[in-house]
Amino acid sequence: MYCDQVHRKLGLGGSAEVYDTELAGLVTGLSEFISFVNQHPEVYHIQLYADNISAISIASNPKPQQGQLMAYIFYQKALRWLDSSPHHHLSISWSPGHTKIRGNEKADKLVKEAANLQSQFNTTTTSASHRAHEYMLTKWKWIWIWRN
C-alpha cells in the first residue's frame, strides 16, 4: 500500500503471488483509510486505486476462489464501515500500471517486496493452484513424451 503519508508492507511469505499481495494491499489500504476517516469525520468518501483488475473484482465479490481470505476480509471491513453511516462511500478504481502515475510505481515496488516477507501463512490458494497447475503440466508433458 502506498500514499504520500503512509507506506506499508504486509508479508505473505515467499509462496505468495503478486496477485495475493495486491489483494492484501487493498485490505491494508482500506484499513488505514478507515482509521484516518474515523479520526476525521468530515471525510466520508474513501477512494482506492489498484492496477490489478482481478484483485478489484474479487474484492467486491468474495465467493470461493483464489484470494478468498483477503477478499473476505476486505469485503467485511468495507461493509462494516459503509453500514456505520449512510454518508459513507467507497470507490475502487482501476489505474493503468507502469504509466508514471504518482505513487503507482512505488506501490508496485512495495507489493513485490512484500511478496517475499515472512508470514504466518504457509502458502496462499493462488500459489498452491499455480504450483499444482505447473506440476500437472510437467507430468502431462512427461506422459505424452513417454507414450509417443
| Element-level helix/strand string | HEHHEHH
Strand content: 5-15%
Tell me which oligomeric state these chains represent: single chain
Which CATH class?
Alpha Beta
Predict the CATH topology.
Answer: Nucleotidyltransferase, domain 5
Architecture, CATH level 2? Answer: 2-Layer Sandwich
Strand count, sense and barrel status of the largest sheet are: 2 strands, parallel
Please count the beta strands (DSSP E, at least 2 residues each). Answer: 2
Query: Which strand order do you get reading across the main beta sheet?
Result: 1-2
Q: Number of domains in the coordinates?
A: 1
Outline: elongated
Number of discrete helical segments? 5
- N-end to C-end Cα span: 50 Å
Short description:
This protein is mainly α and 148 residues long.
Walk me through the structure.
There is one protein chain. This protein has 148 residues and is mostly helical. It has one domain: 2-Layer Sandwich (Nucleotidyltransferase, domain 5). The chain is built from five helices and two strands. Strands 1-2 form a two-stranded parallel ribbon. Helix 1 crosses helix 2 and helix 1 runs parallel beside helix 3. The longest helix has 23 residues. It is elongated. The termini are far apart.
